[in-house]
């Protein structure tokens, strides 16, 4: 095992895994890259988590807990999409790796049944949180559709790399001013924002 001392808490390991998976997705990230981000050896990652798939599943659930907490924290007596949307955009600005890991699960889902099941589980939990905030089914569908658009814009770094004025205008309208982009992820050695 490496001479580097592993973080003391499981959450610290998962926070580091968030950064690694957010930058490259499930298929583009190796356990060696995750280990490097965690400051531990690759054998330690496998010993602790069992496999890259299991590590991604746990990392995705870790990210999902933050997303659901943001929606629940913004809920009030009546459904106000602006308030819940602002909570999600705050999460995008303060914890972009969690949002990106959530979105990366969608692209891994067709090839990985367990990741598909985890993505559906989290989507169900997010939907329940939005409905518990008072959204009708049509309101929840519209709200979640906008969230999926936010995720897609972030994954393709539309705000940071497009040269098309219409794409930039749409990205700015959806993400708001001062929106982060996937390219603005913190350097790998800085961890979570």
Mind explaining what this structure looks like?
By secondary structure, the chain is an all-alpha fold. The protein has a single domain (10-182), classed as Orthogonal Bundle (Tetracycline Repressor, domain 2). It contains ten helices and no strands. The chain has helices at 10-28, 31-38, 42-49, 52-74, 81-94, 96-108, 113-132, 137-155, 158-161, 165-175. The chain is globular and about 50 Å long.
The overall pLDDT, averaged over residues, is: 86
CATH homologous superfamily assignment: Tetracycline Repressor, domain 2
Strand content bin: under 5%
So what's the oligomer here? single chain
The value of Rg in angstroms is 17 Å
Number of strands: 0
Unreliable stretches covering 5 or more consecutive residues:
182-193
CATH architecture grouping = Orthogonal Bundle
Euclidean distance between termini CA atoms: 28 Å
> What is the share of helical residues?
over 70%
SSE ordering: HHHHHHHHHH
Largest sheet: none
Tally of discrete structural domains = 1
Kindly name the structural category: mainly alpha
**Mass-distribution shape:** globular
Task: State the name of the first-level CATH class.
Answer: Mainly Alpha
CATH topology: Tetracycline Repressor, domain 2
Q: Count of helical segments? A: 10
